[in-house]
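F.,

This is the one I mentioned.
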């Protein structure tokens, strides 16, 4: 697991885009998973999350239905991770990692369940960062297996404030899917 000196939470609010208008987008399935988690597991539910978001425009962004295959501005989701991390006491990036692992679990039970029967954990680890970028319309990922068997990934094209969030998502997702594949 990569550990960053700074989590970038304070920088997220400084991105110069109104909520919903940012050029960095994620599939709605990520928002749907987040909203389900908030509803079912966050103490205080959606109202607690919304109250913890300091920007009224970000709160208003969450007052819409999220369609799984539509892409939405990613910054409000990252900001929700900051708020939920505080509410749970886990912290921003540990909360994001938890939510991403749960998202991977949901995806594996759904669209990727069949594929895991034919793909090894090593293949998932090697190709995982590239596959994960299908969730996003920004950033590029490459990966290779190092001589010691570890997977080394490189991500580019990320705005600095989103990098800690994005890296945490990719790592947690690939790690979780690899664990599941190794046990399948």
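My design for it:
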């Amino acid at each position: 697991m990569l550990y960053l000196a700074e989590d970038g939470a304070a920088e997220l609010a400084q991105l110069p885009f109104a909520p919903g208008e940012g050029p960095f987008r994620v599939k709605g399935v990520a928002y749907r998973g987040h909203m389900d988690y908030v509803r079912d597991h966050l103490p205080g539910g959606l109202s607690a999350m919304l109250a913890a978001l300091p920007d009224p425009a970000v709160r208003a962004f969450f007052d819409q239905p999220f369609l799984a295959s539509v892409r939405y501005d990613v910054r409000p989701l990252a900001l929700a991770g900051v708020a939920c991390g505080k509410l749970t006491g886990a912290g921003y990036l540990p909360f994001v990692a938890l939510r991403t692992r749960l998202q991977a679990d949901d995806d594996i039970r759904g669209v990727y369940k069949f594929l895991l029967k034919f793909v090894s954990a090593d293949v998932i680890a090697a190709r995982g960062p590239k596959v994960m970028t299908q969730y996003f319309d920004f950033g590029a990922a490459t990966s290779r297996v190092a001589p010691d068997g570890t997977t080394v990934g490189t991500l580019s094209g990320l705005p600095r404030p989103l990098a800690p969030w994005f890296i945490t998502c990719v790592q947690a997702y690939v790690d979780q899917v690899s664990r599941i594949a190794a046990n399948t």
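The beta strands are 25-27, 71-73, 140-145, 151-156.

Talk soon.
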